[in-house]
Amino acid sequence: MSDIDPDEIPPGALSVLPVAGIPEIRQGDDLAGILADVSPVVAYDVLVVTQKVVSKAEGQVIPIDTDDPRGHKAIVEDESVRILRRRGELIISQTRHGFVCANAGVDLSNIDAGHAALLPVDSDRSARRIRDVIRARRGIEIGVVISDTFGRPWRRGVTDVAIGSAGIGPILDLKGTNDALGRELQVTEVAVIDEIAGAADLVMGKATGIAAAIVRGVPQAWFRNGSVREEIVRAPQDDLFR
Amino acid sequence: MSDIDPDEIPPGALSVLPVAGIPEIRQGDDLAGILADVSPVVAYDVLVVTQKVVSKAEGQVIPIDTDDPRGHKAIVEDESVRILRRRGELIISQTRHGFVCANAGVDLSNIDAGHAALLPVDSDRSARRIRDVIRARRGIEIGVVISDTFGRPWRRGVTDVAIGSAGIGPILDLKGTNDALGRELQVTEVAVIDEIAGAADLVMGKATGIAAAIVRGVPQAWFRNGSVREEIVRAPQDDLFR
């Protein structure tokens, strides 16, 4: 064993910090202002905010129609532009944003009984609003990511991915970059925004009530304009699996 | 703005630390020993190691047969048990491990010209070897993840996911857990191992030659036996998209 020091923070390290102190959010709450108040962000931090609190603040929570025999499924069908697969209670569909996910992103957890939370109407816009308020109040550049929990075909378990972003590039394009041996890289478009969303989930969990996290140490070169909808959503004609 | 301190590290925070000092790896190199020497791991760290150096150390690098008109594709077909889709040069196939990915995980970057790197034969075993060596030398419990870069249907860009693990549970099962409002969670199986692999990629990049990273601060309760192949790979009969 060499003389390595486990307490030394090497250059290029990241930290992922849960944001405490976000109260229960209700429709009409000034979520951006609350986040600006409670998030200890510094310049070039990425603030990751879970979809649930964004949907609540934006009023994207609706009562489940108990007269509709389809129940919760009625909402899922209404929120879908295309159903890809059905199995039992599970529907995999494409939302109007272009996301392909279970139950069109409609969710019954962490909201009042008898209600369902829909995805934000435009989650890139939701991210921009939060970014703009924090930038105005603090005078710093930050990135904002709205995250949600999606399943994957072929792999069990869910992970958090980005459904909206502002100030941070969703895709890192390494085109023209060489590998460590000087050969051009084959894989050039890295969805860093989804890796950031997943990293944030590791400190938020699903049961803790922690609705935001800060990812600190992301290279400054990654901060730019860009939208999840424009860069991450794959057009159906480019997709091999629908 | 309240009296928040951006330099305070809150409870539950993670750090992601690139591991420097890994030399160019060749077949037969004692990768586990090298990692034990250069990685400043402490108890309950997760050491994420990229597939490329594991494949090299294990001799999973083969010359491309220049007499075979299929070229690189010959290797991809040999490494596939089932071809799911083809488009141009791209093949999406299922490997014998059960992974569904582009080109059966066969990769031409960061290896000598005229050669291709295959996936490890058993990447859970590769992770266990590294974990066992570090545990023996340091006397600490750690988790080890072997990561690789996969694309996704429906979403553009690649992310790093786990193809092998030891000492850390691939899936965090929240079954029976309640949400912050006391209702049972709908989504209960979180693929934390893939979120850890993606977080590590944020500090490794594809062009830097950094082949490992430490994720520090993962809850101790997540450390247990478990394998990516057994927990993450979805059986074809459970899958809606092949």
CATH fold descriptor of the largest domain in chain A: 60s Ribosomal Protein L30, Chain: A
The chain-level mean pLDDT of chain A equals: 91
The CATH superfamily label of the largest domain in chain A reads: CofE-like
Question: Which structural class matches the secondary elements of chain A?
Answer: alpha+beta
CATH class of the largest domain in chain A: Alpha Beta
Strand tally of chain A is 12
What is the CA–CA distance across the termini of chain A?
52 Å
User: What topology, given as strand order, has the largest sheet of chain A?
Assistant: 1-12-2-8-9
What letter string, H or E per element, gives the SSE order of chain A?
EHEHEHEEEEHEEEEHEH
Oligomeric status: homodimer
Q: Greatest chain-chain interface?
A: A-B, 91 and 90 residues
CATH architecture of the largest domain in chain A: 2-Layer Sandwich
Domain module count of chain A: 2
Radius of gyration of chain A: 19 Å
Number of helices of chain A: 6
- Beta content of chain A comes to 15-25%
Task: Report the sheet with the most strands of chain A, covering strand number, pairing sense and barrel closure.
Answer: 5 strands, mixed
* Secondary structure: helix percent of chain A: 10-25%
Give the overall form of chain A.
Answer: globular
